[in-house]
Predict the structure of UDP-glucose 6-dehydrogenase.
Amino acid sequence: MPPITPQRPRLTVLGTGYLGATHAVSMAELGYDVLGVDVDEAKIGKLADGQVPFHEPGLDELLQRNLATGRLRFTTDYAEAARFGDVHFVCVGTPQKKGSLAADLRYVEAAVVSVVKNIHGRALIVGKSTVPVGTAEWVEELIAKHAPEHAEIEVAWNPEFLREGFAVEDTLRPDRLVFGVKTEWAKEMLDKTYRGVYELAAAEDREVPVVVTDFATAELVKVSANSFLATKISFINAMSEVCEAAGADVTQLARAIGYDLRIGNRFLRAGVGFGGGCLPKDIRAFRARAEELGVGAALNFLSEVDEINLRRRQRVVDLAAELVGGSLAGKQVAVLGAAFKPNSDDVRDSPALAVARKVHDAGASVVVYDPEGNENARRDLPEVSYAASLDEAAKGAEVVLVLTEWEEFRHADPVALADVVNATRIVDGRNCLDPELWRAANWEYRGLGRP
Ligand SMILES: NC(=O)c1ccc[n+]([C@@H]2O[C@H](COP(=O)([O-])OP(=O)(O)OC[C@H]3O[C@@H](n4cnc5c(N)ncnc54)[C@H](O)[C@@H]3O)[C@@H](O)[C@H]2O)c1
Ligand SMILES: O=c1ccn([C@@H]2O[C@H](COP(=O)(O)OP(=O)(O)O[C@H]3O[C@H](CO)[C@@H](O)[C@H](O)[C@H]3O)[C@@H](O)[C@H]2O)c(=O)[nH]1
């Protein structure tokens, strides 16, 4: 990619997890000088050594290439970060608070304070983490309290919409950019920062829409986008429940309604529901913030969205029990999938792992296999066994549950697998298999929302 030349701001990325590492690497790929910063020394050590600490297709190669050019470096030293950066991207985690629906902003606070107290010139702090509306104003207050008096620091909010599994592509070629700003200078700095993205789009005859807003709107764009996506999934999963009761097929229903362009065919895959480090916590934090703002009733539907989603996990467990004759106690169960979606090793709030836990709690002996997620899963759910391959997981199973739609599972051979299991029973928790194929190989097949 041609490096962009004039007036390139130097960038730091504070927090080098799924979002930050991808952002740092992608911005270096676009020609910027980037310093990635994290408090996790092991993570920084790996990144500096050219190893991506998580699974994200294509990221390893770009990391190594950009380390080699010298454009990309990593550190745990905030003083160095403050000296280096013109623009500081805040990409730290905003997980759900323990015992509450709300977002935990302690890492945002720590990152902002650590960097601004060391800034002596002019700089822009750009929030990328997903946060409750009002956070950017609070970050301004933190800066006023902690920055040296002579420093000139402004804030912008620039939410990120990347999807895991497509993170690099989404960063280099975003559907849109959102700039929540208060001043023309902040807008100009963001334009300079994203010039590489604009130039790549122009070279490919595309345009990247840029929506310039106030802080509150930018913050809300992010959580409302995720709420809409979560609602779409729970809508189709609610239809799935009705299809099950009525003997209809939700996959055909989704296809048919999706032809209406007003509805669209994407994000209508019924199954065991949404998980991950974003949608579940974001809809909960949004509800909590709306309560604080006195408009909780406006988002009551999001609690229904959450409940529909969680009910699907129990539905898979019930189907598995039904298939083995009523009780899972003492049965061997193969769980295929641990990551919350394919092409990721992320197991945060993963439906697959939640089901594995429930099946284990029901007294079954559970063997999990995920092509990339075993290691993270073992940390979260050490009570169950992990297999190194699909065949090893399925060996001797009374029922197989497909809970993450990895290609490897989609293309599994039902005839060959029949020789490995103890009983040919399968629950397709992602509606990703061809029922006819599996039934033809003598499997008792159950999908979600399918007759
Ligand atoms: N993962 C995604 O696909 C995605 C997409 C868009 C937005 N987001 C949002 O981005 C934020 C980060 O998500 P993530 O998935 O990358 O989380 P993550 O847990 O993978 O990464 C967060 C990183 O922040 C680091 N950190 C914590 N405190 C720090 C500090 N004081 N200074 C520097 N680093 C610190 C952690 O060590 C960790 O490496 C969240 O708000 C999330 O909602 C995530
Ligand atoms: O039709 C569908 C589509 C998705 N899912 C599930 O929904 C979850 C989320 O999927 P996806 O949105 O692709 O993954 P994320 O990487 O979590 O991305 C979401 O969350 C990010 C963090 O906020 C945003 O940046 C992205 O735009 C938003 O799509 C996963 O468990 C999927 O299995 C379904 O069950 N059915």
